[in-house]
Amino acid sequence: MNLAYVKAADYISEPVNREPPSREAQLLTLQNTSEFDILVIGGGATGSGCALDAVTRGLKTALVERDDFSSGTSSRSTKLIHGGVRYLQKAIMKLDIEQYRMVKEALHERANLLEIAPHLSAPLPIMLPVYKWWQLPYYWVGIKLYDLVAGSNCLKSSYVLSKSRALEHFPMLQKDKLVGAIVYYDGQHNDARMNLAIALTAARYGAATANYMEVVSLLKKTDPQTGKVRVSGARCKDVLTGQEFDVRAKCVINATGPFTDSVRKMDDKDAAAICQPSAGVHIVMPGYYSPESMGLLDPATSDGRVIFFLPWQKMTIAGTTDTPTDVTPHPIPSEEDINFILNEVRNYLSCDVEVRRGDVLAAWSGIRPLVTDPKSADTQSISRNHVVDISESGLITIAGGKWTTYRSMAEDTINAAIKTHNLKAGPSRTVGLFLQGGKDWSPTLYIRLVQDYGLESEVAQHLAATYGDKAFEVAKMASVTGKRWPIVGVRLVSEFPYIEAEVKYGIKEYACTAVDMISRRTRLAFLNVQAAEEALPRIVELMGRELNWDDHKKQEQLETAKKFLYYEMGYKSRSEQLTDRSEISLLPSDIDRYKKRFHKFDADKKGFITIVDVQRVLESINVQMDENTLHEILNEVDLNKNGQVELNEFLQLMSAIQKGRVSGSRLAILMKTAEENLDRRVPIPVDRSCGGF
C-alpha cells in the first residue's frame, strides 16, 4: 500500500510510559494536577483520539469516560474502515461537494489507520453482485471513481467478475439472474480493540485517562480580563467507589457521541439539541454464511437502505439498519430489525442456504449521533460530516462524523481548542503514529508465539491480531495446560481462541467489570452470547482474584453481565424463539423418534427429565460435566421454570430447531450424542462377562 501522504513520525517523542499507568495512578493524577490544558469528556473513538492528539502536541491532557472505553457506539459498528461508496454515489448524483470531501478525507484516514494499527485492521474485498445487465457499467463507473478518489491510497484496484467467477468466490450467492459482480476494497478492523488501543496509546504518552469517571457537572469561573463566564473543568465521580473531585482544565471538550446534548445542557440549559440519534442493528451468524475473506454489499435493500454482509473474527456480520431512536446507554436490538436483516440476507443467498433465525448468535444496536450544525441557518439539515461547536463559555463540542475519520476529527477539535483558549502547541502529530501494539507487529509474529511459548497456532494468531507486539506479554501470563500440546494457553471456552491469561492482562488494560471483559477486551459477547455466558463464571473467578472481589461482588458481576447479554446482545430475542406457547409441528415419525430419544433419559417414563437423569446417562457413557453447566443447559429448555424438562417442552424444542427458529441447543446436541453413544454399545456375551462364575 502506497501511503504517500503519511510522513514518518520520527519527530514525535517516545511514550513517557512503557506501559499505561494503573487506573489508581491515573485517578491520583486527575486529583492532584492543579490544572490540565485539555479535559476530554468521552472515551469513545473520537474522545480517545482527541486525548491522543492533544498529549502528543505536548498539552497536559486528561480524559474521563462514564462507562468503559468504547462501551457505546464505537464498539457497535459495522467494523469497516471505509470512505463510503454510497456517500460518493450521492455526492455525484446530487453534486454535493460536502459529501465528496467527506469521502476523500475518509479514504485518506482509512490508509492511515491501516498503517498505524496493522494488527487490528486489514484490507477486505467486498463483492457487489449484479443482477441486471445495465447495472454492470453503472456500478463499475461508480466503484472506479471510488478508486480514483482514493488516489495513491487505493488499497487494491477494483475488478469485474463473471457469473461463474463470482460464484467461485462467493458460492452461497443467489445464482438466479446473476450477471456478474464487481469487487472493491475497503478496510476492516476490531473496533473496540482499536478504540482501546487509541486510549492506551494516549495513556502511554502521558494523558491521564480514566474509565468509570462520570462528569456530574461543569465547573465555571469568570475570566478576569473579559468578564465572561468560562467553563474551567468538571466535577467528576468515580462510578466504582462514589468518590467525587474536581478536575480543572483550561479547555473542556465534549466528545460524548449520542450524549452530546446532555453535556451541552450542563453548560447551557437552554442550548438547542443538535444530536439526532439513529439506531443501527447488526447481527452475527456462523462463519459458514460467508467466505472467509470476501464481504458482500447489498446496495439497495427493500426499503432503500444498504446492508453489508461481512466475515469478521471467523463469524459473519450482517447489518446495518438506520432508524430513529431515543438516546440510551443500553440500546437493545429489536426483533423487527433482526428479521429485516435476515430477510435481506435471504434475498442474496442461494436457496440452498437456509437462513435461520436460530443462527443469529448475537445482535446489537449502536446509536449513531447524526448532528445538525448549530451555526447553520438551516437547523433541520443533518450534517453528514463532523461538527466542531464552541459555546459562549468556551465548551468545545465535537459531534457527528464516522469511525474512520476519528483522527481528523480529533485534529480539527484540538486545533479549535488551541485557537479558542490560546494554548501553546504545535501541529497535530498523529498521522503515522503507531497505536499500541502496532509498531513491531508483523504477519508472522504469531509463529514466534507458537515456538517460544507452546501456544496453539489458532490462539497465537488470535493474540497477535488482538495485541500486536504486546502479545508476548499475554503469552507470559498464560497458564500451563497440563497437556503434551499446547503447553500453555487454557481456553475460556472451547470453540474460541480466547485464553485465561487475557483476563489478567485485560485488567492491566483498565477492565473493571465482567462486561468489559466479555465485550471489549475479548469480543465473546459480540460473537456468541451463549459462549460468553458459558465463559462468565470463570472470567468472574479470575477477575475476582486479581481485584479482590468477595462472593457478593462476584455474584453481582455475574448477574450484571448476564443481564447485559440478555438485553443488549440479543440473548432475549434469541431465547424468545422458544416459549411455552411454541407450537409443535412435527411429523408423527419425528415425534416417535424424539420420544424414543427422550425416554433414553426418562427411563422410568415419568414424563420429564431432571439433572439427575442427565447425569445418570452421561455417567453410563463415561462423560463428565459440571453440575452448574448442566443446570444452565436444562434451564434453557425448561420453559415453565419448574426445574425439569417435560416431554412437551422437548418436542417444542425439536420443532423449533426444525423450523430454524432455534439452533445450537446444548440440550438437543447432548441428548443426540448420548443416544448415539448408547446405541453403539454392543452387549457383552455371557462367556466374556464373567457370567460363567
Automatic annotation (TrEMBL):
<dbReference type="GO" id="GO:0004368">
    <property type="term" value="F:glycerol-3-phosphate dehydrogenase (quinone) activity"/>
</dbReference>
<dbReference type="InterPro" id="IPR000447">
    <property type="entry name" value="G3P_DH_FAD-dep"/>
</dbReference>
<dbReference type="InterPro" id="IPR006076">
    <property type="entry name" value="FAD-dep_OxRdtase"/>
</dbReference>
<dbReference type="InterPro" id="IPR002048">
    <property type="entry name" value="EF_hand_dom"/>
</dbReference>
<feature type="domain" description="EF-hand">
    <location>
        <begin position="625"/>
        <end position="660"/>
    </location>
</feature>
<keyword id="KW-0809">Transit peptide</keyword>
<dbReference type="GO" id="GO:0005743">
    <property type="term" value="C:mitochondrial inner membrane"/>
</dbReference>
<keyword id="KW-0597">Phosphoprotein</keyword>
<keyword id="KW-0479">Metal-binding</keyword>
<dbReference type="GO" id="GO:0005509">
    <property type="term" value="F:calcium ion binding"/>
</dbReference>
<dbReference type="GO" id="GO:0006072">
    <property type="term" value="P:glycerol-3-phosphate metabolic process"/>
</dbReference>
<dbReference type="InterPro" id="IPR036188">
    <property type="entry name" value="FAD/NAD-bd_sf"/>
</dbReference>
<keyword id="KW-0285">Flavoprotein</keyword>
<dbReference type="InterPro" id="IPR011992">
    <property type="entry name" value="EF-hand-dom_pair"/>
</dbReference>
<protein>
    <recommendedName>
        <fullName>Glycerol-3-phosphate dehydrogenase</fullName>
        <ecNumber>1.1.5.3</ecNumber>
    </recommendedName>
</protein>
<keyword id="KW-0106">Calcium</keyword>
<feature type="domain" description="EF-hand">
    <location>
        <begin position="589"/>
        <end position="624"/>
    </location>
</feature>
<comment type="pathway">
    <text>Polyol metabolism; glycerol degradation.</text>
</comment>
<comment type="function">
    <text>Calcium-responsive mitochondrial glycerol-3-phosphate dehydrogenase which seems to be a key component of the pancreatic beta-cell glucose-sensing device.</text>
</comment>
<dbReference type="InterPro" id="IPR031656">
    <property type="entry name" value="DAO_C"/>
</dbReference>
<comment type="similarity">
    <text>Belongs to the FAD-dependent glycerol-3-phosphate dehydrogenase family.</text>
</comment>
<dbReference type="InterPro" id="IPR018247">
    <property type="entry name" value="EF_Hand_1_Ca_BS"/>
</dbReference>
<dbReference type="Pfam" id="PF16901">
    <property type="entry name" value="DAO_C"/>
</dbReference>
<keyword id="KW-0274">FAD</keyword>
<dbReference type="InterPro" id="IPR038299">
    <property type="entry name" value="DAO_C_sf"/>
</dbReference>
<dbReference type="Pfam" id="PF01266">
    <property type="entry name" value="DAO"/>
</dbReference>
<dbReference type="Pfam" id="PF13499">
    <property type="entry name" value="EF-hand_7"/>
</dbReference>
<keyword id="KW-0560">Oxidoreductase</keyword>
<keyword id="KW-0496">Mitochondrion</keyword>
<keyword id="KW-0677">Repeat</keyword>
